[in-house]
């Protein structure tokens, strides 16, 4: 059984003319959220052997915080610029390329793509939006990541700050 854990980045600085959206960092609330959720996730025994993150500042900070708490080497985090504001279709295509030797995967990214991805994987069009720092772990009973599609996942745990 594979697990796919979807993590929305922590609460970020407000958008402004001085800061490009891609460069927005976590604000104090976001740092607190991410720290809290990483600890809760570790306490629930989440295993991870692959972390994939958007390259936006707020997602990198979120991925690093989870990796440190889960004792996952920062050097093994995979950065993928395609995940920045990606649609669920693009997210699913990127996930399909994950090598099959990895069974417990974390993807850190952005809404609305992440919420749409989870809804699509669970075949649940009525799913509520994932709030910042949400951690959604899905069970996927497939032999290959390339086989993911609509309705293949079941919810194991949804944690929100």
Short description:
The chain has about 160 residues and is an alpha/beta fold. It has helices at about 30-45, 55-70, 90-95, 115-120, and strands spanning about 1-10, 50-55, 80, 105-110, 135-140, 155-160.
Question: Secondary structure elements and their pairing?
Answer:
Blueprint: E1 2-8, H1 28-43, E2 50-53, H2 57-69, E3 78-79, H3 88-96, E4 104-109, H4 113-122, E5 135-140, E6 153-159
Question: What can you see in these coordinates?
Answer:
By secondary structure, the chain is of the alpha/beta class. It has one domain (2-159): Rossmann fold (3-Layer(aba) Sandwich). Helix content is 30%, strand content 20%. It contains four helices and six strands. A six-stranded mixed sheet has the order 3-2-4-1-5-6, with helices on both faces. Helix 1 packs parallel to helix 2 and helix 3 (88-96) packs across helix 4. It is globular and about 45 Å long. The protein starts with a strand and ends with a strand.
Instruction: Please count the helical segments.
Output: 4
- Class derived from helix and strand content: alpha/beta
The name CATH uses for the topology is Rossmann fold
| Portion in beta strands | 15-25%
Query: What Rg, in angstroms, do the CA atoms define?
Result: 14 Å
Succession of helices and strands: EHEHEHEHEE
The CATH homologous superfamily name equals Phosphoglycerate mutase-like
CATH architecture: 3-Layer(aba) Sandwich
Helix content: 25-40%
Mean pLDDT: 96
CATH class: Alpha Beta
pLDDT below 50 for ≥5 consecutive residues: which ranges?
none
Number of strands: 6
Shape: globular
The biggest beta sheet is recorded as: 6 strands, mixed
Domain tally: 1
- Separation of termini? 27 Å
Q: How is the largest sheet built, in terms of strand order?
A: 3-2-4-1-5-6
